[in-house]
C-alpha cells in the first residue's frame, strides 16, 4: 500500500510541477528608440517594476507564445515618459497539467529610466 501511495505521489508531483529559470541579467535594455545622450542623462527612482506576458495551453493546444518584448514594454510603460530599464532581469516560467491546462510566462523586472527633458526657449 505504501508503494502505491509513494508512486502516485511522485506521479502527481511530476504532473503538477513547473519550471522557472533566469534568461538574462542586463544593465540597460529598451525597445524604444533612444539616443546614447538621452540614456546618459536619464534618471531612475530606484523602484523596481515588473512586466509580464503569458500564453496558455488549453488541453494540448497552445494559444500563442509569450514575448519578452511585450513584457519589457509593459514594464517600461509603468512610468510616464519611460524609455528603458536599468538593472533588468528576464525570467521564464511555465507549468503544465497534461491534457488539462498550462501556462508559460515571461517576466521582465527592472528600474525605469526617464530622460530629462530639455527646456525650449
Give the key terms.
five-stranded antiparallel β-sheet; elongated; alpha+beta; 121 residues; 3 helices
In terms of topology, how is this protein built?
Elements: H1 2-15, E1 18-29, H2 36-41, E2 48-58, E3 61-62, H3 68-76, E4 84-97, E5 101-113
Antiparallel strand pairs: 1-4, 2-3, 2-5, 4-5
Distance between the termini: 84 Å
| Count of helical regions | 3
Question: Would you report the number of β strands?
Answer: 5
* Structural shape: elongated
Average predicted local confidence, pLDDT = 87
> What is the assembly state of the chains in this entry?
single chain
Radius of gyration (CA) equals: 20 Å
Order the strands across the largest sheet as they lie in space.
1-4-5-2-3
β-strand amount? 35-45%
Extract low-pLDDT stretches. Answer: none
Structural class, by secondary structure, is alpha+beta
What is the makeup of the main sheet?
5 strands, antiparallel
Give the proportion of residues in helices: 10-25%
* Topology as a string of helices (H) and strands (E): HEHEEHEE
Amino acid at each position: 500500500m505504501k508503494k502505491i501511495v509513494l508512486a502516485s505521489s511522485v506521479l502527481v508531483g511530476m504532473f503538477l510541477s513547473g519550471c522557472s529559470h533566469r534568461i538574462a541579467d542586463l544593465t540597460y535594455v529598451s525597445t524604444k528608440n533612444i539616443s546614447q545622450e538621452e540614456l546618459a542623462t536619464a534618471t531612475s527612482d530606484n523602484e523596481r517594476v515588473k512586466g509580464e506576458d503569458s500564453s496558455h495551453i488549453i488541453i494540448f493546444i497552445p494559444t500563442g507564445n509569450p514575448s519578452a518584448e511585450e513584457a519589457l514594454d509593459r514594464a517600461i510603460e509603468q512610468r510616464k515618459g519611460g524609455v528603458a530599464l536599468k538593472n533588468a532581469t528576464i525570467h521564464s516560467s511555465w507549468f503544465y497539467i497534461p491534457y488539462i491546462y498550462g501556462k508559460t510566462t515571461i517576466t521582465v523586472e527592472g528600474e525605469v529610466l526617464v530622460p530629462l527633458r530639455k527646456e525650449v526657449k
